[in-house]
Amino acid sequence: MPTAIPHAGNLKHAINTRQLTMIGIGGVIGAGLFVGSGNAIAAAGPGIVLAYLFTGLVVILVMRMLAELATASPETGSFSSYAARELGPWAGLSVGWVYSYHWCVTVAFEAVAGGAIAGQLMPTVPAWAFALLFLSVLTGVNLAAVSSFARFEFWFALVKVAAIVVFIGIGIAAICGAFPHYPAPGTTNLLGRGGLLPNGFTPLLAASLTVFFSYFGTELVTIAAGEAADPVEAVRASMRSVAGRILIFYVGSMLVVVTLLPWDSAEITESPYTAVLDLLNIPGARTIMNLIVLTAVLSCLNSGLYSASRMLFSLARRGEGPRPLGRTTRSGVPTAGVLAAATAGFLAVAANYFLPTGAVFSFLLSSSGAVAVVVYLYICATYVAGRRNGAAVESAAPTVRMWGASYLPYLVLLTLLGIVAGMVFGSGTRTPLALTLVVTCLAVAAGVLHQRRAGRNVVVAPVDQPRTPEDQSPSAA
Asked: Which of 56, 82, 83, 410 could bridge 91 with an S-S bond, Cβ 3.0-4.6 Å?
């Protein structure tokens, strides 16, 4: 007879709708938009706007599929839980561990990046000390309670949204000639320096990795839904507006940058947003942008600790990870999961103390570069399988429906596979793709082995609801 995996304690439904909605809005604005976009522009030229637009449309469709799954069954494990249900435990285990790996690496990267930015603002303090401070504080925030994470992330998101809206407003005014010392550029920077694609089409494909990495995090709202007071409504509201947010925040701001600045200017690779504000003689532009980027980095660090810990929690509850990761405190926090994610960051801080910052950045980015594409492939495959299976998606009557459900998911799946195939031939994408595929293959192998060993002795059940009366008692924690 099947036996459920025993566990202790449960998550708390302590994130209100306002917080979850803002987390969803701000989650699409990552540090990659402010930091990584400069190199992408320098490589692809003004045509980078097309890369952001095309990739954004793909992400919108993937998130629409995930929204349908999430509103039908809000769970902390999100796409990992759905993959386990529709494709088999091997799929849930593999995508869950790959995703956790990505966020653990991201926590490490953002800790080092945050320290570097703060070090520029206060050169007398070593960067590693700032990194250690940021990581320690946000680890404490995540260990306290989920409401602490939600409050911090709400304000981080509010700062990011306000900053990008103000930047776009200033940019539009400059394009229209509202600044007396800066004449309207027209299409000079867009078309007058070699056209939209001065280096050809190939760099656009290479830039897709940076773009995918920038968009990654949009799915966070479906993971946080497992601890929301009204998860269905919050996911529905957030995911329905994801298209507008991507088009405005990413495509809109990129269009402003490449219209106002020559794509081959030296300043654009360092920080395109700072370069635009400097061009327009905005007082304190560099300091302002450094503070905004630092906010985005800390937001990503905070989200990374949360996402990794909740995914590890979900995996452990399904018997696909070490059992201690599935235990919670009296306040509903999976302490072991938070500490596991934070450990990667502390190791990176230690490495940053002994190694050049560039070496640490290069390794961390390469080791998780293409995970976003892999996760999106899993979501597409899960959705397609769910519609074929019928029960999970249709009977639950989700409040968000995928457009063109009979054909668009297949088109997106083929597009993602095409992007992966194209990365094989790109010199800048081959190594990250290879490292990501190695991690993915190891995770799939572990998932298949787990499924064969477990057979039918493990029950895959929602992790956010208690299964026994003992689970509801404080002593279980």
From this structure: 83
Mean pLDDT of 218-223: 87
Distance CA 431, CA 288 (A): 35
Q: In sequence order, what are the residues at sequence separation of 6 or more whose Cβ sits closer than 8 angstroms to the Cβ of residue 19?
A: 150, 151, 153, 154
Q: Is the pLDDT reported for residue 386 higher than 50?
A: yes
Q: How far lies 360's CA from each of 37, 53, 98, 116, 347, in Å?
A: 19, 30, 20, 12, 11
Residues contacting residue 147 through CB under 8 Å, at least 6 positions apart: 12, 14, 15
Could you tell me if 373 and 212 are in contact, meaning their C-beta atoms sit under 8 angstroms apart? yes
Alpha-carbon gap, residue 331 to 144, rounded angstroms: 8
Contact of 318 with 326, CB cutoff 8 Å: no
Q: Token pair 């302590």 is at which residue?
A: 14
pLDDT band at 469 (very low <50, low <70, confident <90, very high): very low
CA–CA separation, 123 vs 407, rounded Å? 55
Average pLDDT of every residue of the chain: 83
Rg (CA), the chain: 22
Q: Which class for 50: exposed (0-12), middle (13-18), buried (19 or more C-beta within 10 A)?
A: middle
DSSP string, 121-153: HSTTS-HHHHHHHHHHHHHHHHHH-HHHHHHHH
Contact (CB, 8 A) for 208 and 51: yes
> SS3 for 462?
coil
Nearest Cα neighbor of 375 from 439, 287, 430, 313 is: 439
- Three-class secondary structure of residue 187 per DSSP: coil
**How far apart (Å, rounded) are the C-alpha atoms in residues 214 and 206?**
14
Cβ–Cβ under 8 Å, residues 261 and 267: yes
**Which positions ≥6 away from 213 have C-beta within 8 Å?**
30, 32, 36, 369, 372
Helix (H, G, I), strand (E, B) or coil at 27: helix
Distance CA 401, CA 421 (A): 29
What is the pLDDT, as a whole number, of residue 456? Answer: 47
Q: In sequence order, which ranges of 145-271 are alpha helices (DSSP H)?
A: 146-175, 188-191, 202-215, 220-224, 231-240, 242-245, 253-260, 266-270
> What pLDDT was estimated at residue 89?
92
Contact 85, 393 (CB under 8 A): no
